[in-house]
Predict the 3D structure of the following.
Amino acid sequence: MLSSLGASQDDDGFTEAVAGAYEAGLAISFAGLFAGETRSRVSLPSYPFQRRRHWIEARPAPSVVER
């Protein structure tokens, strides 16, 4: 049994309802579910130990000038 969505439920509630329906074996039209949204591909490492960094380097802290 799956709970239905109320008018005041947020995106998390909707996502949980869709996940529950999928787990229960219902056919989900994912193309229709995400229609109108755009996605972009992101290049990520192909395996966990690939030696490639994926974050922004920290800038050095500004030095303090005494007067």
